[in-house]
Amino acid sequence: MAFDIDMIKAVYSKMAKRVDKARQIVGKPLTLSEKILYSHLSEGEPKNAFTRGKDYVEFEPDRIACQDATAQMALLQFMQAGKDKVAVPTTVHCDHLIQAKQGAAKDLQRANETSNEVFDFLESVSNKYGIGFWKPGAGIIHQVVLENYAFPGGMMIGTDSHTVNAGGLGMVAIGVGGADAVDVMAGMPWELKFPKLIGVKLTGSPKGWTAAKDVILKVAEILTVKGGTGCIVEYFGEGAKNLSCTGKGTICNMGAEIGATTSTFGYDDSMERFLRATDRNEIADEANNLRDYLTGDPEVYANPDDYFDQVIEIDLSTLRPHLNGPFTPDLATPVGELGEKAKKNGWPIKVDWGLIGSCTNSSYEDLTRAASIAEQAVNKKLKPKSDFGINPGSEQIRFTAERDGLLKVFEDLGATVFTNACGPCIGQWDRSDVKEGEKNTIVHSFNRNFSKRADGNPNTHAFVGSPEMVAAIALSGRLDFDPINDTLINEEGEEVKLDMPQGIELPEKGFEVEDNGYLAPKEDGSSVEIKVDANSNRIQLLEPFQPWDGENLMGAKLLIKAHGKCTTDHISMAGPWLKYRGHLDNISDNCLIGAVNAFNMKTNFVKSQITGKYDAVPKTQRQYKAEGIPTVVVGDHNYGEGSSREHAAMEPRHLGVRAVIVKSFARIHETNLKKQGMLGLTFDNENDYDLIQEDDTFNFIDLKDFAEDKPLTLEVVHHDGSKDHIKLNHTYNEAQINWVREGSALNMIKKQNKA
Ligand code: MIC
Ligand code: SF4
């Protein structure tokens, strides 16, 4: 049965007319991305053509998805918006707060005990405001969305950067911060700078060990972690047709790792098969009637250079399997060349864990391909050299995989099957096999491998690969193993070679599940009470941020000048801190503790200009706050890379940081800063980053005249009294400047509601 079929029919009923109109206005054939964007304008039928990379445009997304770690803050904000019900279909998925330790049943029970208060809060808020609720254990948000809610040609937003996964089913699905989701839940338009478009032409067909994952591992190498910023990546060509729907999901999913706004594929037979297998015949039938509108125009795909801002071509037939890492997802190495590189760089060759799962690669097909490798261990008498951990993507996948004997294959090898949840992918992993700080290597099928991400250990070298490659590497226990060319010695001392992986795209006997973990909300939630204990250390009701007095900001001090990579994991760490995602003051104690101080290359060790002493970042900042001294944070390129977590913007805001000045921003984080009323600014000359000293004082001498398209001037007064004047750029439009004036976008909504 399809959820929200009436909504989907309504979207489809308008699509053809809107796309035809858009084609006429734009004056040329359209990409799929443009078709979806132009058919979801909040003004209805398109009236103007937009300039890519320049115009801010208001959209009307069809649905919203939130996960437990971000939903808390999103819903705490929504509760202040003064609405009775969400304006568009919305779901909450409990997947981030379950720690992997002993295996699914025990881990789930522990999570239900320790995070009971948070799950109850989310369930009751969902029930009150008409939000669908997926219980802990139901699955990872993006797999559940792909299996239940995604539909070709639709547009959705989600409070998680990997919302983009739904591009695998032909959507434009975009990760946002909670405040953006609140706009749409409150019935307001959602604003986005009209993206640029990157076309990726896929030819050939993947063979042997090459998987869908390798496409995105290669694209990440080509575009790097910031090469997709401000862009939608649209995949097309014969090769695209040779990938399964969930394989396409994998590719779109990891588009988050190149900073892309989203990625998508045109509707094709693989999507139809997936819709039918997941009990959504009605959507498949509807989509079949609109086939031409749910993919790019033929002229576009025939001459992509004329229509995309950048075109990349990848031949799947010659693409080699890769492993990307460590510490960054764009450092790609073909399997087989990794041994040499690892030796040169001192990366441990011995592999301790092979982890299969995460929203990127936890589909039924993924499990079958990995299992086809794992089961060779038994047949070929190989004893796995690394530990195996598996997180199925959803209860539907798990139940079906168990029925079909796939989980048993792993269990027979001693693997631990963890809950259908994020687990180690987000540091929810109670790992006991290495000592704190011990240098070691793991391989996983996840998407991110930033320092400390999986287990909190900065010396864990994590490499990203396809599930089948992870299985092969884990069997061998070595990073330099190349299953295509190398052999392994089995328990009888014989040399054996692994056969190529075999996958089953969709379960032959169909998907099956007993309890999918879904709770529908009440039709009328007005009587539902939301309980928040005033003494809770997990949930704290929000206090509005103070408005800006409209004056120049003078006398600000430097909190930290961050060196190099500063992702949202560095700004607001996950793992053990996920438990405070609903309590702004408590979670603020992790503010920027992972960022490297450019003056001493240490983390969480900055100089206080009040005491002259070095101390932890949150503690130092709390002193500035207590004394009413404003501060700034300075950063490098792609600041705020990674997650959509708005805590990375709200914590500095809560603690009294006023501006974040960097060489460049990741998209979601820049918007999150704006939404929370912060100043997110970029150096006009990126070398000015080098002028910033530890004891500097900052005067924003023309902030009073803050206006769209007008750069700001920063006077930097150094310790010896000398001054530099630095030009700072910004991308605030008038409406966004008003968020700064009012203190936050939420304050603005509240004001409008009162008016
Ligand atoms: C992630 O993969 O980093 C997360 C955890 O899913 C985040 C969301 C969060 O921080 O809660 C994301 O990708 O947006
Ligand atoms: Fe969860 Fe990892 Fe996916 Fe984020 S990337 S949603 S933590 S599985």
Structural commentary:
With 755 residues, the chain is an alpha/beta fold. It contains 25 helices and 30 strands. A seven-stranded mixed barrel has the order 22-25-26-27-30-29-28. β8 (196-203), α8 (212-223) and β9 form a beta-alpha-beta unit. α3 crosses α5 (116-129), α8 packs parallel to α10 and α15 (364-379) runs parallel beside α18 (467-476). It starts with a helix and ends with a helix. Bound molecules: alpha-methylisocitric acid and iron/sulfur cluster. Alpha-methylisocitric acid is lined by residues 69-70, 96, 160-162, 175, 426, 448, 574, 642-645.
Write a concise synopsis of the structure shown.
This protein has 755 residues and is of the alpha/beta class. The protein contains 25 helices and 30 strands.
Query: Which structural class fits the helix and strand makeup?
Result: alpha/beta
Strand content: 15-25%
Biggest beta sheet summary: 7 strands, mixed, barrel
- Unreliable runs, pLDDT <50, ≥5 residues? none
Terminal CA distance: 42 Å
What sort of overall outline do the alpha carbons produce when their principal axes are compared?
globular
Bound molecules: alpha-methylisocitric acid, iron/sulfur cluster
Residue-averaged pLDDT: 97
Widest sheet: strand order?
22-25-26-27-30-29-28
Radius of gyration over alpha carbons? Answer: 25 Å
Which key terms come to mind for this protein?
about 750 residues, alpha/beta, seven-stranded mixed β-barrel, six-stranded mixed beta sheet, binds alpha-methylisocitric acid, binds iron/sulfur cluster
